[in-house]
Design brief:
Layout (H helix, E strand, L loop, with lengths): L2 E5 L2 E3 L5 E8 L7 E7 L6 E6 L6 E3 L7 E6 L4 E6 L8 E8 L12 E2 L3 E5 L2
Parallel strand pairs: 2-11
Antiparallel strand pairs: 1-3, 3-8, 4-5, 4-9, 5-6, 7-8, 9-10, 9-11
């Protein structure tokens, strides 16, 4: 019933930009914290950016601070991840996830997950 669907991934050159979308269905974004996570090749899944239920608090990974931003469109039930100044090290499968409470921006704190979308940064 509760579903998250990511889209917007693809191939982009270093220094380029990409915007990922996460469409939520079966629940309201007003009642859930949403996080963006990624899994780079050969690495464990890590938190990238998380936003609180109210939308006014955020947790950033140091590696993306100043380059990535998160936003919500309640009317469209969609959360976005805007990625700028992309680097090859950003290559990963990106996931959005939902949690009842805004705690940590770590995978174990989130209960509901999308299927992921591939982002490849290469020249």
């Amino acid at each position: 019933q509760l579903q998250l669907v990511e889209s917007g991934g693809g191939l982009v050159q270093p220094g380029g930009s990409l915007r990922l979308s996460c469409v939520a269905s079966g629940f309201s974004l007003d009642y859930y914290a949403i996080g963006w996570f990624r899994q780079r090749p050969g690495k464990e899944r890590e938190g990238v950016l998380c936003i609180s239920t109210s939308g006014d608090m955020r947790i950033y990974a140091d590696s993306v601070k100043g380059r990535f931003t998160i936003s919500r469109d309640i009317a469209k039930s969609t959360v976005y991840l805007q990625m700028n100044s992309l680097k090859p090290v950003d290559t990963a499968v990106y996931y959005c996830a939902a949690a009842k409470l805004f705690r940590r921006c770590e995978p174990l704190a989130y209960d509901y997950w999308g299927q992921g979308t591939q982002v490849t940064v290469s020249s």
